[in-house]
Write a structure and sequence with these properties.
single chain, alpha/beta, Rossmann fold, SDR_fam, Sc_DH/Rdtase_CS, Dehydrogenase
């Protein structure tokens, strides 16, 4: 098992990619600290610790770190999978919406990194940030989201250098369009779901959406010792979208 005796925090653990990561990590033997906005999580196992809350609130993040220290002592892996997407033309987006996108995708990641890096053991650890293909390319209507995810990439690269001597690795998995419950619901809300799905798929060289499990495979790689000499990297899992 690739994560035997490893303690991992997974944020945004309630569905989609986060749920797939949780399943992969359990299979590989990890002890899990999970967080999300839902008050309860049906998939939590007896040996998991689930703490609901808002990662934009530093007091909550600090309390989460304290609970991790009390329950596990150290944390070896942190998967930053939470975030918020709000689509709008730049000139139409209200300031509060823009701030929410930046806070939820970038500044909350900073807070988790700030409070959990000190919990990593002397031999080091791994942060895996879940970015987006839109952190690497621009797209109309997604300017603030792209800015936030692009900022997350640079946060990871800077932290990778700053923490290298502590053997704390920081990498980014950048998914493309993924068949999560949120995306599937958005497709079903369109006037012609099948036509809309096909339109989105034709924008991807591999002609299909990613599965949450495929994204979780990449996250597991960065969490495990198989990536022990990789830090500051960005791995697109986007079916070739950013290869254009």
């Amino acid at each position: 098992m690739r994560l035997k005796n490893v303690t991992a925090l997974v944020t945004g653990a309630s569905s989609g990619i986060g749920e797939a990561v949780t399943s992969h990590f359990r299979r590989e033997g990890a002890r899990l600290l999970l967080t999300g906005r839902k008050e309860r999580l049906d998939t939590v196992r007896p040996d998991d610790l689930y703490v609901p809350g808002d990662l934009n609130d530093e007091a909550f993040v600090e309390d989460l770190a304290n609970q991790a220290a009390e329950s596990f002592g150290t944390v070896d892996v942190v998967v930053l999978n939470h975030g918020l997407q709000a689509s709008s033309p730049l000139t139409d987006m209200p300031y509060d919406d823009a701030k929410s996108v930046l806070d939820s995708n970038l500044l909350s990641a900073f807070l988790v990194m700030k409070h959990f890096a000190p919990l990593m053991p002397p031999e080091g650890g791994s942060f895996v940030c879940v970015g987006s293909r839109l952190g690497m390319v621009g797209k109309p209507g997604e300017v603030l989201y792209s800015a936030a995810k692009g900022g997350l990439i640079m946060l990871a690269k800077g932290a990778a250098i700053e923490w290298a001597q502590r053997n704390i690795r920081v990498n980014v998995v950048a998914p493309g369009l993924t068949a999560t419950p949120t995306i599937e619901a958005a497709i079903l809300r369109s006037p012609d779901p099948e036509a809309y799905r096909r339109e989105r798929e034709t924008q991807i060289p591999l002609q299909r959406l990613a599965t949450p499990e495929e994204v979780a495979d990449a996250i597991l790689f960065f969490a495990s010792s198989e990536s022990s000499y990789i830090t500051g990297a960005v791995l697109p899992v986007d079916g070739g979208y950013t290869a254009f």
